[in-house]
Amino acid sequence: MSPxxxxxxxxxxxxxxxxxxxxxxxxxxxxxxxxxxxDAGVAKMSLYxxxxxxxxxxxxxxxxxxEEWLDLYAARLAPTTTPQERVLAVFDAYADHAATxxxxxxxxxxxxxxxxxxxxxxxxxxxxxxxxRQVQDLVEHELVTFQDSAQAHALAVHLSFxxxxxxxxxxxxxxxxxxxxxxxxxxxxxxx
Length: 192
Hints:
Layout: H1 11-26, H2 33-40, H3 44-50, H4 54-77, H5 83-99, H6 110-117, H7 123-143, H8 149-173, H9 177-190
């Protein structure tokens, strides 16, 4: 009886993994299709069998990063018992996502980094915009449980600016501790 070999990920999965590593570490524009297919160990035709274009691959990468963050957020949300803790879970999930980038070198928010390279109207920018809107909405949803809606909206905007600003600075300075500082400020603002 021979040991079973592990199931090899699909070509699409390998392409997404290779693209994620390259896009995050080098940028979207600096990453060519040949590098992605070589890293994935697939023929160039496999890329076009799975993605209509590089733009389609970029959009899938951005959607994947959003889904990764949602999974991290769900894990952080599970043990919470108060709306204040649930707001802070957003900050914790951002820090968790940043920590997963250490193998390639933390460069800030992968979604914003990619969006900065994309032209206005590019579908990938819409994915990033929707992620940022959803994060702010998650925060606001918790805040309205202990503040009136106008105050909750204003604070949700403030907290999302704090979150995004801390991500940008942490990426520039290579200091994930800045995310913890932002969380501390957020805790004060929500009374946690």
